[in-house]
Design a protein that fits this description.
The chain is mainly beta. It has one domain: Inosine monophosphate cyclohydrolase-like (Glutamine Phosphoribosylpyrophosphate, subunit 1, domain 1). It is about 15% helix and about 40% strand. The chain contains five helices and 13 strands. The longest helix is centred in the last third of the chain and has 11 residues.
């Protein structure tokens, strides 16, 4: 698979929707994850990321303008022991609760499917990072309608053991802008991971479409100590 540059992937796509990146720094010392949200409607754009415990939550920037919280207010990131869960919806809680009951990542998601937002039927994308004894692996999942047919749900899980230094994978909800919005297709894109956390966050934020971007979360986790650094950038201030 050809390795892609995240900056190019984002600059060339005005509306990838929501996206998850997971990978490893070039020196092999840190696990990397990022999550961004975009919006076309006033309701979707009226959001910020706020820290909550070891994770984050979306929150209305102006509560008076919030019209429907059902699909836009959720915890995208939660931490369960040595596992970091990153998703584009309230399935973060489903995965957290399932894995807390000893279910696997994939088993936990079997009770969920794509979002009920016809005609887009937005895919649910999820990722999990597992770090134990300096050993790092991760997995990604997408739950999507069957080519726009809501009668069927297609489920895909991609697992990456012993990730390569300087490499990562990128999955997002929409292939491109459109009406209805076409779902992401294929396996997560192989992308280059480079730079320290501030450089990486700056590259991601500046590559996202200026009109549609809303918020960005980036975390670097030290594989030896488990300590992490987090950056949050919100368009609304």
């Amino acid at each position: 698979m050809e390795m892609k540059q995240l900056s190019e992937e984002l600059c060339e796509n005005a509306y990838p929707g929501r996206g998850i990146v997971i990978g490893k720094t070039p020196d092999g010392k840190k696990a990397v994850t990022a999550y961004f949200i975009m919006g076309r409607s006033e309701n979707s754009r009226n959001r910020i990321f706020v820290e909550e415990g070891e994770g984050i939550r979306t929150q209305a920037f102006d509560p008076s303008k919030l019209t429907d919280p059902s699909l836009i207010i959720y915890a995208p990131v939660r931490v369960l022991g040595n596992k970091t869960i990153v998703t584009n919806g309230d399935q973060t809680d489903t995965i957290y609760e399932g894995m807390d009951r000893q279910l696997t990542f994939e088993q936990s998601l079997r009770s969920r499917e794509f979002e009920p937002d016809a005609p887009n039927y937005t895919p649910r994308i999820s990722g999990i990072l597992h770090i134990e004894g300096k050993v790092f692996n991760y997995a990604m999942s997408i739950l999507k309608s069957n080519n726009g047919n809501p009668e069927a749900c297609n489920r895909y899980t991609f697992a990456y053991s012993n990730p390569v230094e300087g490499e990562g994978h990128f999955i997002h909800t929409y292939r491109e802008d459109g009406n209805p919005l076409p779902s992401f297709e294929g396996e997560p894109k192989l992308v280059e991971i480079k730079g320290e956390i501030d450089e990486f966050a700056k590259m991601l934020w500046e590559s996202l479409n200026e009109e549609n971007k809303v918020s960005l979360f980036v975390r670097y986790i030290d594989l030896e100590t488990g300590k992490y650094e987090t950056r949050i950038i919100n368009k609304n201030k």
